[in-house]
Amino acid sequence: MMESNCFKTFFKYTSLNIMGMIGLSCYILADTFFVSKGLGTNGLAALNLAIPIYNFIHGSGLMIGIGGGTKYSIMKSCGKHDAADRTFSHAVYLAVVFAVIFVLAGLFLPGTIVSLFGADGEVFDMSKTYLQVILLFSPAFLMNNVLLCFVRNDGAPQLSMAAMIGGSLSNIVLDWVFIFPCRMGIFGAVFATGLAPVFSMLILSPHFIKKRNGFRFAKCRPDARLSGEILSSGVPSLVTEVSSGVVIIVFNSIIMSLEGNTGVAAYGVIANISLVVIAIYTGIAQGIQPIISRSYGMRDYGSINAILRYAVITMFIISVTVYLCVFFFAEGIADIFNSEQNETLRRIASEGLRLYFIAGPFAGFNIIISMYLTSTENPKPAYIISMLRGFIIIIPMAFLLSYIGGMKGVWCTFPSVELLVAMTGIMMLAVIQRSRRLKS
Q1: In whole angstroms, what is the distance from residue 273 CA to residue 120 CA?
Q2: What global pTM score does this model have?
Q3: Closest of 211, 148, 128, 172 to residue 32, by C-alpha
Q4: What phi and psi values does residue 397 have, to the nearest 5 degrees?
Q5: How far apart are alpha carbons 175 and 196 in whole angstroms?
Q6: β strands within 61-102, DSSP E
Q7: Residue-range domain boundaries for the chain
Q8: How many CB atoms lie within 10 A of CB 291?
Q9: How far apart are alpha carbons 86 and 88 in whole angstroms?
Q10: What are the percentages of helix, strand and coil residues in the chain, rounded to 5?
Q11: Other C-beta atoms within 10 Å of 94: how many?
Q12: Do residues 159 and 151 lie in contact, with contact meaning Cβ atoms separated by under 8 Å?
């Protein structure tokens, strides 16, 4: 792949995926804005307590979709079309299995889960409603993620982007309709969110109706080995999303003990803006995945290295821009979600924004490197990176730094962890590339 063509392909896929992922992340951001306006601080706290479940569902869909899409792209580039179709079939099988688990949890365990997350009183009722509806809509979220990933790997990134943005726009419009004119409260917010993936799949449907799809559902017996390969390739994506939920749970618990519901609401502002920023990094990562997987199948390592270089440079420019905006406009950003003009919420959120988003370039690098490793069939180091940043380091670091520095320590946890993991990722990348050079 020539350098100029390589950049054009990179720009096409990543720009479309960044826009699409920003649209997708607006599922929750729209809820945050309208809930803050319609239901105040308690509604914002309830939403933040229930968000981790969305991370679990979304992460499971990405695990199946990214893992299956990576396998599909490599099989197609090698000319193994039957194997590519079987990969799609197994991705659908896995989505069904996960959907059943989430729906059962929504039917029988919503109260128990919300209690474990620390909700009580009026916040408990609102969190339970949000969580239960999200779980019952999980089949739509899972299947939408699978189809988005396969359509993107099928050479239609424009349609994938249109579906993500279309679903998000429907969510924003229905959020306003359900919360204000219909006065449906927290149920209206989550119902709008649940309908979004349905609209997204409707936008994707012409790809199949007009028979433009290069993948088809092939009747085949479940293959444990193929299912395992799909899941192992997608595990880093799951860990990235699930870790966001786990971090929110841990931070909520710590902040609740330090600043109460107002502190949790302030963190809700930061966590939801963080979802959008992380979505941009994920958009870059998902954009390079089809190109790198295809190049890897053809053993075109020059293109792989060029794409990785473009991704890291793009991520760094975006990170600097985002941080400058956050640093200079922190109070204004906090006020957007502060309908009650709570001065404590404003103070906590603005301080947190300036400290928390120092992590930007390190988090972006870790997400991109993890996807690069997954796309080149190196899931183990990608898994290690995801586990380090998602569980192993961040949880003990959160308790340690909050004990030492209170709320400032809480906000410094995220950048400290991402920096340490980025250093580890650089060393892993150096070892892998050195090994590849020796083999060649």
Answers
A1: 25
A2: 0.73
A3: 172
A4: -65, -35
A5: 10
A6: none
A7: 3-439
A8: 27
A9: 5
A10: 90, 0, 10
A11: 25
A12: yes
